[in-house]
UniProtKB/TrEMBL annotation:
Pfam families: AMP-binding (PF00501). Residues 1-198 form the AMP-dependent synthetase/ligase domain. The lineage of its organism: Bacteria, Bacillati, Actinomycetota, Actinomycetes, Kitasatosporales. The keyword Phosphoprotein applies. It comes from Streptomyces roseoaurantius. Signal peptide: none annotated. This is Non-ribosomal peptide synthetase. InterPro entries: AMP-dep_synth/lig_dom (IPR000873), ANL_N_sf (IPR042099).
Length: 243
């Protein structure tokens, strides 16, 4: 997947407001410590690296630590991370390995992504007293994150609203918008879209389709994910169309 400096810049400017600012306000410090616990083979590894552009410190954990929930929970405390993004399942394992003390978490902001969040875990994240939690959704083709949801804003798992510079549509098989509550396929568009697939023009044309709602030449990405709009303008992820 070919992404550009421009699309990464779009992600940075969005996350600076959505993720960095809450952490700065929570800690009262301008310079923060972000943990990097993703494999560099995974697109989400870009997200913590972008903290460097805002003047923060990024601590890259070793593969041994990244794969061990107990060691990773210990690293969060020992290195005093302010932010960490992991999968929901890994966060649950870390919570059971000493990361949480009751409703207290040492992280100012936690992000979860890469998997659907179970209802019980969503409510657990929402109950954390001094920690803001966010659910981050996005295919690589939309430069890591296309949608973000603040966990405390809902009593059930949602993928939320588009990141800044990105649009999202829920469409039927004729590429027509469906009303709130009706299931359709999720199509991100806007400043986060990748150029396409390197050396695969036919696949690029199949997955990146003309945007009938945007300016001439703009495109949508066909995710293959099922979703629906809520009545208040957020998106509910429902699974894969090919499952």
């Amino acid at each position: 997947v070919v992404v550009t400096h421009e699309t990464l810049g779009n992600l940075f400017h969005s996350h600076r407001e959505t993720l960095y600012r809450p952490a700065i306000e929570a800690t009262g410090r301008r310079h923060l410590r972000a943990g990097h616990a993703w494999s560099f083979f995974f697109d989400a590894s870009w997200q913590p690296q972008l903290w460097l552009l805002d003047g923060h410190c990024v601590h890259i954990v070793s593969e041994e630590v990244r794969r061990d929930p107990e060691l990773l929970a210990d690293a969060v405390r020992r290195h005093r991370f302010d932010f960490l993004e992991v999968t929901p399942s890994l966060f649950a394992q870390m919570a059971g390995s000493g990361l949480l003390e009751g409703d207290d978490c040492p992280l100012a902001v936690v992000g979860v992504g890469g998997e659907a969040v179970p209802v019980a875990q969503w409510r657990r994240l929402a109950s954390l007293r001094a920690t803001e939690a966010f659910n981050l959704y996005g295919p690589t083709e939309s430069t890591v994150d296309a949608l973000v949801a603040r966990v405390g804003d809902s009593d059930r798992p949602l993928v939320g609203r588009p990141v800044a510079g990105t649009r999202a549509y829920v469409l039927d098989e004729r590429l027509q918008p469906v009303p709130p509550g009706v299931t359709g396929e999720l199509y991100p568009a806007g400043g986060g879209l990748a150029r396409g697939y390197l050396g695969a023009p036919a696949l690029t044309a199949e997955r990146f389709v003309a945007d009938p709602f945007g300016a001439p030449g703009s495109r949508l990405y066909r995710t293959g994910d099922l979703a629906r709009w809520t009545s208040d303008g957020r998106i509910d992820f429902l699974g894969r169309a090919d499952d």
